[in-house]
Amino acid sequence: MNSHGANIFEIAKNNGIEIKDIKDFSSNINPLGPSVKALNSLKNNLILLSSYPDVEYIDLKNSISNYASCDEKNIVLGLGSTEILKDAIKFFDPKISMILSPCYSEYENELKKINSKIIEYNLEEKNNFEINLDEIINLINKNKVELFVFANPNNPTGTILSALDIEKILTETDAKILVDETYVEFTDMDIFSSAKLTKHYKNLAIVRGTSKFFALPGIRLGYGISSDKNFLNYFKEMEVLWQINSVAEICGKVMFSDKEYIDKIFNFIDSRRNYIYNEISQIKNLKPFKSSGNFILIKILNGINSTNLREKLLEYGIVIRDCKTFKNLDNSYFRICILDDNSNEKLLQFLKEIY
């Protein structure tokens, strides 16, 4: 178990389980797999692997632009969203920054590397881990925060702000905002994505990847969106020739425009998330929290802790996320994502038996 999820190769080796038999509820990847149209496009264009990709990635950026409702000239590409996040934090170089707690650990790790003073806004269980917008704005102004970095929805709590909420922060503070939208595609993007705000606010940058919603972590494709020319020039200067490989380019050009696939994934996750939340709500000793991601944070009210639960479930090839590595959480919490129906039912049955 690393700090970001399970190493299924190690788990398979240590537990004598075939990789194909492992049900990984820790990685938050869409269980229905990649776009078939994208995979077919890759199969039909394998000959392109013997040529260099388009150095400007014009078609890929155009596809992202249409999908994300942003200007093509405002897009930067990278090897996954984490790489872009790291470089964006270096660009902003804030003396004082703010993050949510708990959250994805890489934000704090990268901010510490540049010796930024980090202010934490604690998400509290008594408030169902929801954000109080006025408190956030007051905290930013009081501490003269230069950069607010957060995921929307937040991992692991599923907490979310609307685009209108984020616009209020932009207009009522002087802070720059870096939003990790890794999981926003599992929500109503018309309400929650801030990508369209980048056209009007230069102090906003968005980062997205293709690992979770599009189920293609192996192609290592991420992208950022900003209308700040200094931000765009910074990434341009660091750009490596042919940084994005042909596989990522070919798949990306197709999957971002595969509306049938996009709707299918959204509807599947939305319905199963609600179902699983309701089922776990019926288990006496567990408390699930409402989530806008493709995962659910759960508190153990009574019974074995999450560390022991994880070990017990591993015997059956089921992997959950033990939340003790998240700040302000301990081993009374665990996180699960949504998998296929059979896997979901198998996990629910074990949880009902145990708790």
Characterize the structure shown.
Helix 2 crosses helix 10 and helix 4 packs parallel to helix 5. Helix 5 links the parallel strand 3 and strand 4. This protein has 355 residues and is an alpha/beta fold. The longest helix is centred in the last third of the chain and has 23 residues. The radius of gyration is 20 Å and the shape is globular. It has 13 helices and 13 strands. The mean pLDDT is 94.
Major sheet: arrangement of strands? 2-8-7-6-5-3-4
Distance between the termini: 24 Å
Q: State Rg.
A: 20 Å
What class do helices, strands and sheet pairing give?
alpha/beta
Count the strands?
Answer: 13
Query: What is the helical fraction, as a range of percent?
Result: 25-40%
Helix count, per DSSP?
13
Mean pLDDT, all residues: 94
Low-confidence stretches: none
**Strand percentage, roughly?**
15-25%
Shape: globular
Largest sheet: 7 strands, mixed
Q: Which terms summarize this structure?
A:
355 residues; 13 helices; four-stranded antiparallel beta sheet; alpha/beta; seven-stranded mixed beta sheet
